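Deliverable D4.2, example record:
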Amino acid sequence: MRAPQSWYTEVLRQGDPQWSATTEEIDAGFVRVGFEIEDIEPFPTITGPLVIGRVATIEELTEFKKPIRFCTVEVGEAEPRGIVCGARNFAEGDLIVAALPGVVLPGPFEIASRKTYGRVSDGMICSVSELGIGHDHSGILVLAPGTAEPGADAREVLGLDDAAIDVNVTPDRGYAFSVRGLGRELAGSFGVPFVDPGLATAALTAPAQSEPPAAATGDGWPVAIDDDSQATRYTARTITGVDATAVSPWWLQKRLMVAGIRPISAIVDITNYVMIELGQPLHAFDADKLSGTITVRSATAGEKLTTLDGVDRVLDPEDVVIADNSGPIALAGVMGGGSSEVSDATTTVLLESATFDQVRVFRTGKRHKLTSEASKRFERIVDPEITAVASDRAAQLIVEIAGGTIASPLSEARVEVPPTPNIEIPADEPDRTAGIGYPAGTTARRLDEVGCTVTGTDPLTVTPPSWRPDLKQRADLVEEVLRLEGLEGIPAIVPSAPAGTGLTPAQRRRRAIGRTLALDGFVEVLPYPFMPAGVFDQWDLPADDPRRHTVKVLNPLDAERPELNTTLLPGLFEMASRNIARGQRDLSLYTIGQVEFAGDNVTAMAALDVTRRPTDEEIAALDASLPRQPLHVAVVVTGLYEPAGPWGPGRAADYLDAFEAARSIGRAAGVEVTFTAAEHRPWHPGRCAAVTVDGVTVGYAGELHPAVLERAGLPKRLCAVELEVDALPLTENLPAPRVSVFPAVLQDVAVVVAETASAADVAAALREGAGELLESIELFDVFTGAQVGEGSKSLTFALRFRASDRTLTEEEANEAKMAAVAHADAVIGARLR
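Output generated by the structure prediction step:
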């Protein structure tokens, strides 16, 4: 929202005639109440004799290739000045701005007397772009008759001691897309009483206050609103005898140009001016081109409308239009139609002021790729109570500037809407929220400055104003009070952690797992929490697999990812694919995050009352409505697990590396994991193991199925692990384990078992038979061949024995080893090789 500093000064002086502030102070004032300043652009400094001139004569020089005029301009001196000019948008008798020799215009561009086109040009007639106060260079600046006398200082007449202030208005503050709204904020920031132009029939004017338009008699133009249009208010009035060729006064043109709107004609300029001043978009129709009742309705499929930009548009039933007996004449809230636009021949104007549905206006603009200053405001909600006041204001200005008579009373069609509900708030709630003791009455005073109606003492009963639909609950009112009091005054105090607390055991376990994997060379990544569509079909997952029970998102950020993850692997696969596509082929990735499984009771619940604590029943219902959200950890490895170098060619990752990653996770969590052969998609059936802890399956590890990898565009050898962290028992190793100071005794044992026997089962049997002296057992060799017999294999384990209270002898260690073999023989049929 861009407007000149002088306009804000005028607004605040309605409440305090002595108020003034520098540009820097106004900047700080807006920031103080939460508005960011995009830009402050002072008007350029122009030195030298810049004066108002009147064009006395115009001589057309036709002997040149392009049209050139030689003008004599009265500049308050004894003799007029001769000036050569190529613009053609002015006539004899018009007031213009003349830069006489010695003037330095923005650029810098110094004006001097010089001979050109066979004449001596003793100055220059200026456009707004040459003066540095606008971007329109299509013609020179023409001032309205009576603006000033020739020879007057143009700097004073034009108000060039000014600056353009551009305020960044967030979408939730539609009221601030007007000088009325921003002026209120600035008044609150500086503690100045605010005179609201939207609450009086006579709004603020410039340069002086004018009387409201006289009440017209007779019948108003018939208007109507169809229910399906969702519009809530439509007003119209006719003004006859207008001069459509009238020139807008300079003060109005200047404010429009600073706001980024090019002045066109007095009538159009006035509708734009009132829109910026009050925030209410208006539109002026040529009444002689209309017939019958003006109706706000939905468009009929196939209807056509040529808008003011000259584009023929085919309308959609979702579009809202303004129509008369001939059909659509405007796109409601977006742009008028070309068939009813005001032209130089217009003598009777129908002035529209209305309130349209913000969603319908937004969708219409997007559908037709059409944005206007009006649609920007309707999309952010326009004050529904300003409609008639804005119409009065525009009618008053049209009569003053373009002449004419208000020929009809205000016609109005209105759809009743529910009144804004009251909000009760304790008077000290902002104090308790900020931790500051504000003076008594601060809450009521600040809410009154916002525009609320405040009654009562404690609690306060607050009725939000019509232009603030964002004020819906107590928290919104608290935010307004704190904002106006100054957020910088709220102390930033870091709360101290109560003694005896810290991370929970589950939090420490999560950190330990992440730290261990990072130390093992894995890199943490953060995949999307949303599931790619069709990934489970790509895996050939059975229809009854629990991972298919996903939670669907009602408003997904990406239509291709409408469901929450039930497994972390799809996101890791995407990360791996993206890295491989960028040339990084040796990968060791991990992620830790929650997954969501939909249950039978997963539902969307209505919002709870935030003014009280939820009841136990409401909390229980909320808990029951949530999906199960366990914490998972997943690992992916591919390419070279051990890098190549002078020491050798490196080693490719295989399923054993996935098993070791699962062991590392178990060690970090303080539990021992075991492996059992399993079949579980998307893993390869022959190279997949179920990871168990105390007999409970907590996840799977191994090499992925080749068909899955091919469909996903991943390398042929890719291994993965996924474990449910929440399924691991929580163990606290407190106090720290005691380390024996006595030496260990190392023993190797080779046993022959059936070829189908699991090495993990054999190791478990040996561990159980060896007793408490066995400290560790590791498999380091597997042998098959004629020496062990057909259908058998030899497994060699390294055993380490240690006693905590003495030096263990070889005999004791050997005895424990033989006991382990005997127990394995009894359980599995293992015999000593």
